[in-house]
Automatic annotation (TrEMBL):
It comes from the Eukaryota. Residues 175-255 form the GFO/IDH/MocA-like oxidoreductase domain. It comes from Saitozyma podzolica. This is Gfo/Idh/MocA-like oxidoreductase N-terminal domain-containing protein. One of its GO terms (molecular function) is nucleotide binding.
């Protein structure tokens, strides 16, 4: 049994890399990307700005926040935190600014599609927080629009950069033919779930659209579109509501993956038809998990990998440990993964950054790791999972 020690950044190949930070040593930018934030809540403060500020390729030039400094705010106003940054109160004003190259949308789920449509139409690249849209049709529309205006449309699937996920990718060659995977994204009675009193399923509502948009993305990234979905959406908080806080999705795969020209991406793992038809992937979220949660179980013919716990970076940022701190992303010994195989020891992992990939795409120097086609299929899978749960039967994956 080999214990895998997980670090936050990318593969450690030389001793020099041990001392590098995320933003150090990356090619110095020829030009800066002028970036604007749409929405100034906790999402922007925790998940976006700490990484943007520490990447010299970006220059924050504008923030769209409708509320004034005099209005009641749970936190300080953007004009206080970023006094040298232009402040806009309307989307029209923001989109009319010719000195914004890239907009980052961090607003409520139901507004994502309309805002992204306006931003792309104004000739700007756009990053949209998850879920990228509330329907797969909206995602398809934005993909077409981005192609038409030749701009980057990047879904914020930042969990593709979690330390344990990157380590999982590195150990795949040691597992042989994969025949089963179990993914958990559990929480221990989070306040946002327990206090949710909503009784109707509005656009973008529910745990599947929230946490599920990340775990579904992992499924699609690894294996591509499934052949069918069997799902169970559940409400565990003490309220009668169709708005789920927990779910189980069981994905079954056909013999052949759809061709890339039909879907826009290829799965990371290419399985032979005889193996693929027996592949089973289970994706779960439970909001009442009061122990160190299971994260990944992946089984192959030559080895298995088990991982407990959750990537620590979000909690670290809330606690004031920023991405340029040496402690950032390092996991506690109690949640390291275990690889059961006869192979040699593996290097630990360091993490590459979401915004590094976006910069490469904007500058024409690379492509997105998490592309909008995968995000579109993720939304579609969540739609079909809800249908399966409501009908009480397995449904085929269709677009």
């Amino acid at each position: 049994m080999l214990r895998i020690f997980i670090c936050p950044y990318g593969i450690l190949t030389t001793p020099t890399q041990l001392g590098q930070r995320n933003h150090v040593g990356w090619p110095p930018p020829v030009t800066q990307i002028r970036l604007g934030i749409i929405g100034y809540g906790s999402c922007a403060r925790v998940f976006h700005l700490p990484f943007i500020e520490r990447n010299p390729t970006y220059r924050l030039v504008a923030i769209l926040e409708p509320r004034s400094p005099e209005e009641q705010h749970p936190q300080s106003h953007c004009t206080t935190d970023y006094p040298g940054t232009r402040w806009y109160r309307t989307l029209d004003e923001f989109c009319a600014d010719p000195e914004i190259d890239l907009a980052v949308v961090t607003t409520p789920n139901e507004s994502h599609a309309s805002i992204a449509r306006k931003v792309l139409g104004s000739g700007k690249h756009v990053v949209v927080d998850k879920p990228v849209t509330c329907t797969s049709d909206e995602a398809s529309e934005l993909i077409s629009l981005a192609r038409e205006v030749a701009k980057v449309f990047a879904p914020f699937q930042n969990r593709r950069y979690d330390s344990d996920w990157r380590t999982l990718l590195s150990i795949l060659p040691y597992l042989g033919e994969i025949h089963e995977m179990i993914i958990h994204k559990d929480k221990n009675s989070p306040e946002w779930a327990i206090s949710d009193r909503s009784t109707s399923v509005g656009p973008g509502a529910g745990a599947a659209m929230g946490m599920g948009s990340h775990s579904v993305d992992w499924c699609l990234a690894l294996f591509g579109r499934p052949a069918s979905i069997t799902a169970f959406y559940r409400t565990l908080r003490p309220i009668e509501s169709p708005v789920e806080d927990s779910f189980t999705m069981i994905l079954q795969y056909g013999e052949a993956a759809p061709p890339i020209e039909d879907v826009g991406y290829s799965p990371i793992i290419a399985l032979a038809p005889a193996v693929r038809k027996n592949l089973l992937v289970t994706n779960k979220t439970n909001v009442y998990s009061n122990m160190v949660p299971l994260r990944f179980v992946i089984r192959g013919r030559e080895g298995s990998f088990v991982k407990y716990g959750e990537d620590p970076q979000d909690a670290q940022i809330v606690a004031g440990i920023m991405p340029d701190d040496p402690r950032f992303g390092l996991e506690d010994d109690t949640i390291h993964g275990e690889l059961s195989t006869a192979t040699k020891a593996l290097d630990s992992q360091r993490k590459s950054m979401f915004y590094r990939d976006v910069a490469n795409a904007v500058m024409g120097a690379g492509t997105l790791t998490a592309n909008p086609e995968t995000a579109r299929d993720g939304i579609r899978l969540i739609e079909l999972a809800r249908e399966s749960s409501q009908l009480g039967r397995t449904v085929d994956f269709t677009m």
